[in-house]
Specification:
four-stranded antiparallel sheet; globular
Length: 383
Amino acid sequence: MQKNRLQLTRERLERTNTVIDLAAGSFHDAGLRFPSTPLSHAARTYFFSRRYRPDPRGAEPAREAISAYYARAGVQIPADRILITASSSESYSLLFSTLAEHGDNVLLPTPGYPLFEELARFSRVQPRFYRLDPRRGYRPDLHSIRSRIDDRTRFLAVISPGNPTGQIVDAESFASIAQLCANNRIGLIHDEVFAEQTYEQSLPRAAAARSAATIYTLNGVSKMFAAPELKLGWIAVRGAPGAAEGAFRELELANDTFLSCSGFSQAVLPALFATAAPFQRAMRRYLERNRRLLTKVLGSLRGVSLHPPQGGIHCILRIDPIALKRDMEDEDLAVDLLEQESVYLHPGYFYGIEDGAAFVLSILNSPDELAEGLTRLARFLSN
């Protein structure tokens, strides 16, 4: 893969300097790891009694633990409508390759994480993009969605909490989107992988919408438990009995072909759910503290518009073109920031932001590193 100018600049500077990566996305690099004691206990139990019994839907105790998780949130999804995969990426690939045909299209949000587009193309499905409205906190623009639907549209993906926008889609919007999907026989995908990183409000779920639409909820252990190494995700299916059941049977058959998720990860999943609460509270406090720091340092800075995350770990910082006093692309700004302050950020165009200069940053760094990086960024923007 050809490296862009920003990456080449970073590699050059890192030979002699320490670069602060304010786009960091690794929970483990930030020191956030699921506690080892419950995992070790669950592992000992597994290895002393293990027996390979593959289930195309995933191990029943693991699916029951997932179902109980949704029940605690007020959403009833039975265990026999949950399919365990090796990751959210595999979940997307299963949906696209199993329930769509070559030439069909999927509606994806913009700004959005570029991986979704690649997963669609990998499955020979055409990505189409609907707009998230920055004037309304990056909520999905229903007019934009309607304008992109045609008779080959098979899925509409909603990412909430958002990446990179950090927005949470409200229940009313989910109800409208679900009804739109039902009317057009489109599957609604709710990617909620940052469901446990929410601030100041609860997370509405698409699966709670009263609609005849078939709704696919995607989540996994990577962000929920800061355990990406376990490689476990899931698809939870809700909807009108006939359509939802038919879709689930096809997904089950496809999942049975690969059986990608390890038996070990499925065996320890109930222990993760049972012991996670203290760790998740501590992780949320860590991120909330960083979120307040972000707002304190950048929130009142002249010439910029900050959208603090409602959920997740990312947010968008837009640069006022008048404040720049010159016409600059956001990649040029990111390179200048790197050269002058040794701070690395993602330019907005990485995520489909093309209407003006913008940065995408994360609140995952350690508080000291984040404070230093934000101070340098504020100095750069002030100058």
